[in-house]
Each structure stands twice: as C-alpha cells, then as structure tokens.
Amino acid sequence: MMATDKDEKPRDDDYPDIVPEDTRGDLALEAGALVANFLPGLGGAIANVLSGWSAERKRERVREVISGLALRLANLQSTLADEYLRGDEFEDLLDQTLRRVANERHESKRRLYREFLVGAITKPAPYDEQLRILRILEELQAAHIVLVRAILQEPDPKHADGISGSFAVTLKRRMPELYKEQIGDLVAQLNDFRITEMSPNLQTMMTARGAEDMRERVTPFGQRFVAYIRAADQEAS
Fold first, then answer.
1. Consecutive H or E run containing 165
2. CATH 1.10.10 fits 142-236, yes or no
3. Is residue 47 classed exposed, middle or buried when 0-12, 13-18 and 19+ CB atoms within 10 A define those classes?
4. What are the angstrom distances between the C-alpha of 47 and each of 23, 55, 167?
5. Domain limits of the chain?
6. In angstroms, how far is CA 5 from the centroid of its own chain?
7. Under-70 pLDDT residues of the chain
8. Quick check: helix, strand or coil at residue 54?
9. Which residues pair with 165 in a beta bridge?
C-alpha cells in the first residue's frame, strides 16, 4: 500500500538531534542568510526546519548540502514565488530531505539529495510524486549510482562492432569491481524502482551493438534520476 503523507511524517524519536541546542538558533540564521538574498521564502523554510534539530557530524552534512543548494540556485538564477516556498508541503519536503541528508554517510548520495531539492524548487511536481522520488533516493546505494552510470555509457565501437554480446558481459566490463551476482541483484532492484526496464536474465545473447547500448533501458521515470546524477556529477567535477 502506498504510504500516505502522514506515514511519511517522521516522529520526533525517529532521528537523533542534529544540532546542539545552544547553536540551533545560530545555524538557522546562518542557513537562512545563505539563500535569503535571492530566495527569501527558502531561507525562512530552512531556518524553520533547522531550528528544532541537533550533533556536529550531521550538522556538517546538512551545511554542506545547504551551501551547495545556495550555489546551485544562484548559478541557475532561479526565481520562484515565495508563496510556494513558504507553503507547508514544501517545508515538509525540505524537512524530510534534510533529515535524510543528516543520516547519509556517502557524499555522492548527499549530492543527489541536493539536486532533488534543486528540482523540487525550480520545477515543482505533485507532492506525492516528490515523496515517491525521495523514498527511492533513500533506498539507492552508491553501487546503484555506479550501475546507472554504466548503463548510460555510450557504446564502445571496439565492442559494438562484434558479432554478439550480453548485458552481463558489458556491465561486468564497465564495473570490474563488482561480482556478476551483485550486478544482477542491483539491476533487479533498479527494475523494482521502475528506474530501468531490463531483462532479469542478463546472460541473454543479442547483437553486440544491442548489448553495448543500454541507454534506452532507462524508463521515463528513471530519467528523473538520471538528471539528478548527471547534475551532481557535473557539479562534482
């Protein structure tokens, strides 16, 4: 059964405090000031969310994403109505995203959360769809991101001009650090997320070019995630 908005709302005891009590006000003010000059509504929403949190390492993760978010929005010269940024739906979305950021150890995943917020601010989608994306982002592992990059690679002419091939051979060549069984499990999970539509039997033989070019196996919904990954990679480079 699809989780409702109420189901998604975290309880106070679901997360440890993120910011020591005596610095909450300072962090809220600092966070708001980072973005208030060009998006006052967003600055206010961030300050409201952070004012109730608390722990140094998690605080730094949140600060990292907020700073990156401010730079991304400034570079995009984004303009949105304050009415949306001040709304309950956006504040709830921001709250749930930053709580996940605080608990995320992998920098690559935190960049994806940042890009999710950029998209939520610049191209708002229905709230339920945003929650669906956020839930999947939380479940994505760093290995899933590596796999998506491998699927998106352009065909290598040296291999595409062969007689035959398979997805299993192509993916193993592109991700030599992973076992074949791992690759199969990761592909099945991306299929479950509806990010890709790939045959569960990666060993199936096909033309060499077909095995080498998997880009069309990414679903329209998956393209949303591809956009986050590409934007995060571009900003990291």
1. strand 164-165
2. yes
3. buried
4. 12, 17, 47
5. 13-139, 142-236
6. 20
7. 1-40, 50-55, 76-82, 236-237
8. coil
9. 206
Residues sharing a CB contact under 8 Å with residue 135, sequence separation 6 or more, in sequence order = 3, 8
For residue 26, count CB atoms less than 10 angstroms from its CB and return exposed for 0-12, middle for 13-18, buried for 19 or more: exposed
Work out the burial of residue 186: count CB atoms within 10 Å of its CB; fewer than 13 is exposed, 13-18 middle, 19 or more buried: buried
Give kind and range of the element (H or E) at residue 164. strand 164-165
pTM summary value:
0.72
- Taking residue 147's Cβ as centre, other Cβ atoms within 10 Å add up to 24
Q: Where are the alpha helices (DSSP H) in 77-174?
A: 82-85, 88-102, 107-122, 127-139, 142-152, 157-160, 167-174
Beta strands 164-165 and 206-207 are: antiparallel
What's the pLDDT score for residue 28? 61
CA gap 64, 72 in Å, rounded: 12
pLDDT at residue 169, rounded to an integer: 94
Q: Which residue has the tokens 């504040």?
A: 91
Two tokens at 125? 């989608």
First-to-last C-alpha distance (Å) of the chain: 40
